[in-house]
Amino acid sequence: MIRVLLADDQLLVRAGFRALLDAQPDIEVVGEAADGEEALLALRDLCPDAVLMDIRMPVLDGLAATRQITEDPRLSAVKVVMLTTFELDEYVFEAIRCGASGFLVKDTEPEELVRAVRAVVEGDALLSPGVTRRLIAEFAARSKEPAADGTLAALTEREREVMALVGLGMSNEEIARRLVVSPLTAKTHVSRTMVKLGARDRAQLVVLAYESGLVRPGWLG
Questions:
Q1: Residue 30 Cα to chain centre, angstroms
Q2: What is the mean pLDDT of residues 205-211?
Q3: Residues 110-125: pLDDT tens digits?
Q4: Residues in domain HTH luxR-type (predicted)?
């Protein structure tokens, strides 16, 4: 059973998400929070698998709460999915850099929300259903200039190639077709790259691909 916490200052939003998620045979909403501080307290008490976190909340916003979650060893297994009203929310890329596993717009289709919860718990990144590669590049363009710090020194040439394709927004299946390998082989390369770089998940690998300079904004056309 996938255990989920809902953190949003709008009661109706939480009620809608709860009704949808609790109707699934493999998902259970174990708690709710109306602001970031409540969310942190609930997370430490309930230890859910994932939290749906609104970006804009009173007392402590979702971005600050996410930063605290990813810095707390007790919460290292919790996957954070940020909720936003607009796909071009100015805080989304920063949230992913802080450790969020992805984001969803609040008006996403119900089946996509359910799929998203399952995906992040399984370790996949969620850069929003329907999110375009242009959007990934737009967030990446706001990141810091690449630093020559040897971040990628531990990677093989193949792992660098795979990481670059992840940075371009490709799925394992798309990477497999590009490199003429099986999807399982592509997934293995992605997993090994994440381990070597200490990336929490695929979303953070995308961030590292841009921040290391392996992929540059504008390459996507």
A1: 21
A2: 80
A3: 888 898 898 888 876 6
A4: 148-213
